[in-house]
Amino acid sequence: MLSHDSIWAAIDRLAESNSLTPSGLARRAGLDPTSFNKSKRVAADGRMRWPSTESIAKVLEATGASLDQFMGFVARDRIENRHLPSGAFPSQPSPIPLLGMAQAGAGGFFDDGGFPAGQGWDIVEFPTAPGAGGASVYALEVQGDSMKPLYRDGDVLIVEPGAQVRRGDRVVVKTREGEVMAKILARQSTRNIELQSLNPEHPTRLIDMADVEWVARIVWASQ
Fold this sequence. Notes:
Blueprint: H1 4-17, H2 22-28, H3 53-63, H4 67-80, E1 92-100, H5 101-104, E2 122-128, E3 138-141, E4 156-161, E5 170-175, E6 180-188, E7 192-197, E8 205-208, E9 212-222
Parallel strand pairs: 1-3
Antiparallel strand pairs: 1-2, 3-4, 4-9, 5-6, 5-9, 6-7, 7-8
């Protein structure tokens, strides 16, 4: 879940990555120079003030950063400040299993819970929680252009099976017929799951839960 602190921290990191102060970033984006000042992040009555989506869109355009890069800054703050559940992300590099999305639909690569199983997995280095040994996450490599504009061919998705998923989360879903897809969870009930496509050229999918083998949350995209 996004937090007030992680969104503002991402803006600070975006400014820093462009050798700017938060005020300089606001100015470059055509905003009031005080828009991102720390004093503007909490109202006088203690209510949290959030940056508007318009402001975020303007700073991304002004810096040439992508939404995925911005969300990477958000995730980085959540890792460092432990906004994520223990074990979801690490601090020490550790090898984790890696498989291509095209191969993931074949049998023998996953157990019933959606965790890596069998042979044929490659290895990629990724930071994992101390003592976790990378057991809670694995990586899928995007193949093809069906997930543009968010994910491109060669991008690596870090997936955490067993993690709680909520509406709006990016997820990987495997059907019992062997189809593996990365989507946005629009709605889930006991009867079916509605999945919004990352690529606007692809329609929303409504799948019976009886036809779903597993759903796993995407917790990181390495690009």
